[in-house]
Structure formats: structure tokens, C-alpha cells
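Lab meeting, item 3. Inverse folding demo.
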């Protein structure tokens, strides 16, 4: 007897179809399209810009501020994110560029191929989600304060993206990898900032 069961639709396929569709693409639309995944999907899209070598047009700080606001809401247990109406109407045009879609989807595909549910029951609990949101908030702030044009915002931003993917895929290993990535990024920001400060002190005070 043949098995007509269709394979489950991958998250990356859903996201790619939405990004390539003619449907409106604003921050407000994300909440209605992806429902309970809206927080994680928004983090992936917004923080994927500073995390990947993509042309940004100088809007990464705006995305980081929005992400930080949403991290606070997720930590407080919000089921759906709230944004002022003006921000809800923010168009995500940068995310619909073919090169941007390709890079983001390629990253998600890689994690989908190498992940499987691990400790999913824990990941679904509200306390765990709140802790993950606080960690992502710290990484987002670190990405925001990284020296401009230094590239140091990449690893903290990537940490947010990978943790969000781990929440969607319900894989604790992926979440752990994202956390480690963000911690390394913060360490590099602190270390190189100290080096820059010491260099300026040496130049101007000696």
C-alpha cells in the first residue's frame, strides 16, 4: 500500500514563499502571517541584516531598537508583539531583495538540515522562553553599541538569529550554539574596545 503522507513543509520554504510573494511585507504583517512564530521570525529577519554581509542602507540600528523592544515583550510573556502603529507599517523592502532572500534562506536551510528536536518540552516553557529573550536582548544591545563599520556587531546579531532558529526548530543544541556565538561576539567587542581606548591614550597622552 502506497504511503501518500506528504512531508512537512519546512519553515524555510514558508518564509521564502512569503518573502517572494506579492503580499504586503511590513512588521505588522509578520504577526498575522506567522502567528506564534512571529517573535522568532521577526528576530531572524531584523537581526539577519547586521548578522550577514548585506547592504543595509544604514537601517540596522532601527532594526536593533525594534528587536530590543520585542525581546522585552517576549521576556514579559507577551503572546503577540506590540509596536506603535507607525512602526507596524515599516516596510521590509530590504528583505525582499533577491540576494538578501538567498543569504537568509541558505542559512536557515543549513540549520534545518543539521538540527532535530532536542529538549523540546523545556524549550516550549514560558520560563525558558523568557530567559532566551533576555539573552537575545543582551546580544541585541551589544550589536547596537558595537563600533560602527567595525563588523563587531555581526556575532551578537548572529547569536540572536541562531537562538531564534533554535526556538522554531525546538533544538537546544542550536540555541546553545547561538548563545556561544553571541558571547564570543560580546567578548570581542569588549576586548577590541579596550585595545582602541588604550591606543588613543598612548597616542594623545604620551
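The presenter then showed the designed sequence:
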Amino acid at each position: 500500500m502506497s504511503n501518500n503522507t506528504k512531508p512537512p513543509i519546512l519553515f524555510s520554504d514558508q518564509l521564502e514563499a512569503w518573502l517572494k510573494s506579492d503580499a504586503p511585507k511590513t512588521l505588522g504583517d509578520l504577526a498575522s502571517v506567522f502567528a506564534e512564530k512571529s517573535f522568532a521570525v521577526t528576530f531572524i529577519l531584523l537581526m539577519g541584516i547586521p548578522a550577514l554581509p548585506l547592504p543595509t542602507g544604514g537601517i540596522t540600528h532601527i532594526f536593533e531598537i525594534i528587536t530590543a523592544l520585542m525581546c522585552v515583550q517576549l521576556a514579559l510573556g507577551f503572546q503577540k508583539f506590540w509596536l506603535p502603529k507607525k512602526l507596524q507599517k515599516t516596510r521590509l523592502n530590504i528583505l525582499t531583495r533577491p540576494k538578501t532572500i538567498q543569504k537568509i534562506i541558505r542559512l536557515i536551510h543549513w540549520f534545518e538540515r543539521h538540527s532535530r528536536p532536542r529538549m523540546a518540552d523545556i524549550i516550549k516553557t514560558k520560563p525558558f522562553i523568557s530567559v532566551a529573550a533576555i539573552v537575545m536582548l543582551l546580544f541585541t544591545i551589544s550589536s547596537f553599541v558595537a563600533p560602527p563599520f567595525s563588523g563587531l556587531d555581526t556575532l551578537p546579531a548572529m547569536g540572536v538569529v541562531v537562538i531564534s532558529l533554535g526556538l522554531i526548530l525546538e533544538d537546544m543544541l542550536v540555541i546553545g550554539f547561538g548563545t556561544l556565538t553571541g558571547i564570543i561576539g560580546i567578548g570581542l567587542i569588549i576586548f577590541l574596545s579596550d585595545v582602541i581606548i588604550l591606543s588613543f591614550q598612548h597616542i594623545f597622552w604620551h
